[in-house]
Every structure is written in C-alpha cells, then in structure tokens.
Write a structure and sequence with these properties.
alpha+beta; Sufe protein. Chain: A; three-stranded antiparallel sheet; 18% strand; globular
Length: 168
C-alpha cells in the first residue's frame, strides 16, 4: 500500500492539478517552509451559492520538494468546488492525519488521494511540507471571507425592462 501512496504523490508532483495563478480571487497569500525551502503563492476564490459559501477556485504557484508540491495538487482536488464547511472539514482530517505520528491512517473514501500522505506523519520534518499548501489555503480563505459579495450586494432587477419583454 505504501508503494501505491508513493506513486500517487509522484503522480501529483509530475502532473499538478490546479497549478497556475488565476483570476478572479479575493485573497492571495505567500507561505514559506524555511526548514525545507518550500514556497507557495496561493489564491482563493469563494462564491456565495444561495447563502452557502463555496470554494469556486484555488490556484497556486510554488516551488519545493515533491511532498509540498504534490500536496498542493491534492489540496486543489480535495477543496475546489466544495462548500467552505466541507473544505474546512477536509483540511481538519488531513491535518489530523499528518500530525498523528502514524496513528491515523486516513479514510480513502472521505479523503481521496490525500490519504497518500498518511506515511508523511512518521517523518516530522516532512509534516510541514505536506501542510504548507493546506494552511496557506486556510489563511487565504479566512482573509477572503470579508471580500465575498453576497446576493444582497447584487443590484436588484426590479423595475428593469428587458428588450422584447412585455409588462403584461
């Protein structure tokens, strides 16, 4: 199983998902792991989906070890499109697993490819590498909460006549 997890990590490192800074976004952060030299610039775009906050996009650019870069790719796959609550739960499960010192294996059904990082928990120096993009996402998501337009901010269409429409 460990070989399969290593292959998943290498695949995400070689074929990163979500890489490349995109617009629109509400917040951008720059995080560094000085112990390994990993760096990430990450943008978050949240949307109000009928009163439910949704992670519309996560985009990033980074450099560093294969673990940090693969983790960014897995983070994108795990969080993009989810509600903010679901994304925060996914972050919590991932953080708990990689900080468990190998005691929590993670659940593939709920975590998907993120479960491949369970083995990282046995190497404390690598835990920071795996967590870097996830904690950058959390930081950016919290910053962006203040900048998300709600449906209350959208101008009303009341009284606006669309060409070709009859008023009854």
């Amino acid at each position: 199983m460990e070989d399969l997890y290593q292959e998943i990590i290498l695949d995400h490192y070689r074929n990163p998902q979500g890489r490349g800074l995109r617009e629109p976004f509400q917040a951008q952060v720059h995080h560094v792991n000085p112990t390994c030299g990993d760096e990430i610039d990450l943008r978050v775009h949240l949307e109000d989906d009928n009163g439910v906050m949704r992670v519309a996009d996560v985009s990033y650019e980074g450099q560093g070890c294969s673990i940090s870069q693969a983790s960014a790719s897995v983070m994108y796959d795990s969080l993009a499109g989810r509600t903010l609550d679901e994304a925060l739960e996914a972050l919590g499960r991932f953080q708990e697993m990689v900080q468990s010192k190998g005691e929590i294996a993670g659940d593939e059904d709920t975590m998907g490819d993120a479960v491949a990082f369970a083995g990282v928990a046995k190497y404390p120096a690598r835990v920071k590498c795996a967590l870097l993009p996830w904690l950058a996402w959390k930081d950016a998501a919290m910053q962006s909460m203040d900048d998300v337009p709600s449906m209350d901010d959208v101008p009303s269409m009341a009284g606006v006549r669309v060409e070709g429409e009859s008023n009854g």
